[in-house]
Amino acid sequence: MKNQNSMTINILVKKELDIWVGHCLELDIVATNPNRAKLQKDIIDLVVAQVDYAFSNNNLDCLYHPAPKEVWEEFYSCKEAIEKKIAFKSQSQKNRTLKTFVPPWIIAKTCLSESACVV
């Protein structure tokens, strides 16, 4: 069986007033959307674009920027995280002859924060 490397990220999702907020803890990327399902797609799309750019341009030193401590604390106080395996297809490497390593999978652990009940 071929070894499939992956990259794992953690995402905190919560509702603030009338908007859903998604925060990727490892990359400190934030997305907002009034629709939770669309927000989850948006935050994953942003993470994939950031990872693709960093790997494709040999710029891994600038990839990781941890979210503030409070966001990590809120994520780890979460009761349940949903894990999703996302196939990673590099968009920026399509026209390149020399391919650099890009992880084939991103594992996204998403936590719906207790504060999501705030109306």
What's the number of extended β-strand segments? 5
The SSE order reads EEEHHEE
Top-tier CATH class: Alpha Beta
Assign a percent range to the helix content: 10-25%
Strand content: 25-35%
Q: How far apart are the first and last residues' alpha carbons, in Å? A: 49 Å
Counting H and I runs of at least 4 residues, what is the number of helices?
Answer: 2
Biggest sheet overview:
5 strands, mixed
Explain the overall architecture.
This protein has 119 residues and is of the alpha+beta class. The chain has one domain (6-112): Double Stranded RNA Binding Domain (2-Layer Sandwich), CATH 3.30.160. It is built from 2 helices and 5 strands; from the N terminus they run βββααββ. The chain has helices at 36-56, 69-76; strands spanning 6-16, 19-24, 29-33, 81-87, 105-112. Strands 3-2-1-5-4 form a 5-stranded mixed beta sheet, sandwiched between helices. The radius of gyration is 15 Å and the shape is globular. It starts with 5 loop residues before the first strand and ends in a 7-residue tail after the last strand.
